[in-house]
Amino acid sequence: MRGSLITWMGLAISTASHVDAAAVTYPVPSVVPSRAAPLDRTPLGPSFEFFMWPSYMTNVTPVLQCLGQLTKVYKKTLPVRIGGTTQDRATYDPDFKGYVGYSVADPLDAPQTLTYGPAFFDLIHDFRLGFNRGDNNRTNTYEAVLKAKPKALKYLWGIELGNEPDFYLYQGKPVVVSPRNVTQEGADAASWAQGLIDVWEKPLPILAAGSYAGNTEYPLYPSTQYLISTAYSATIRAATKWYSGHLYASRKNLDTEMNHNQTVSDLAVFFNKISAANAVGRDFILGETDFHSEDLVIDSTFGAAISTLDRSLRALSMGMHRVFYHQGTVNQAYFNWWGTDVIHTPFYGAYLAVLAVAGGDQILESDTGNTSYAQYVIYKKGKPVKAVLINTDYFSGNGTRTASSFTMTGLRDGTVRAIRMTGSSSELRASVVHNQPSFLPTIGGQYFSDRDCALVGEPAAENARVSSGEVAFTLKASEAMLVSL
Which tens digits make up the pLDDT trace of 53-67? Predict the structure, then answer.
């Protein structure tokens, strides 16, 4: 436990030498530009692996408390997605008395088959729920959907039929029919959607469509544009509430993958998908994302927290409606925000992102998108109210730590107040228990207690004077700031 540790992280990093790396200047438009993207009231949340959902709700100490922290910032119930690979391995049993049942040789393994019953839906609160399409048992899947309807309808904001169907061929799923191609998958997705509409009846729209991994190594999946223009009938389009896609990083070097220009590049594939959904009056959601889909230690680092913050704000500034960060097997998936009794480093990036967007109406990315440095501006009632500055340069923890000057222009003269997210290096892992608070990340001088997710430590804010419309902050490599304007 770390409840007694109250020293501010800045004491640790102040002893490391640093050198100026770059100076960047970004405008803060005083009136919201037309290219700014609208913000949902709760645009960021977690996605829970299907079979792990009951464990996260009943066995993992920090989860409910940390979800409460995010809800407190939003002042509204946090949206959650339940789904993932194991939703396509799950069989519904109306007589099953537990939440979920399965057998594995190792508790860190995901089951190849599992059973769940009506009690599973008792844990639902404002959720998008995934069901099994891959096993091609429509009777069973639709039975589960209809059971969820009376038990969880007031909390259910979307139904997802199948997780990452572009992998079905390689997973040997029964739903695959030869020849496997875009046409076959699009037709099958449409057939399942129509089947759901027929049994569900109302309220509509309810479908969350797509949910493809979008991995270029497995290209046999229809694009959002194809679903809308070719595969889906007018009835299915009307019953579709959201279109959705997934994103994981492919590169395995932390210094490359956490960089802002790489984040911009990774997300660029979604521009056309967002536009296609918006053109028919629907929003696009990043239904499942995180740093990497495989288990890499770098996913639990402070660099991953920086990436989580940057990816969230970049995705929202592109026009994505919501972004969901996946939580896999407890104590096994490095990208998880929580373990059984520990809060992992990436949660800090998610929390700062929520602090940034909460209460905002629109978001604008005002940097160039081709450097290590990012600036996002959040607007409310047409005026800028917050800005986020991010230095995504890598720092190993050894040698000289670079620092960059961020100048914001176009502001009213006066004083602005900021809080800093920092850690001792890009490689810092909060999940490794330390005796010194200097090895923990902080936001505004505070860190999260593993015991109850409370913020611990004296709050530390920084004030800066705006003169002639300009103000500057210095950020070391792998730091971010939230500035209240």
Answer: 999 999 888 899 999
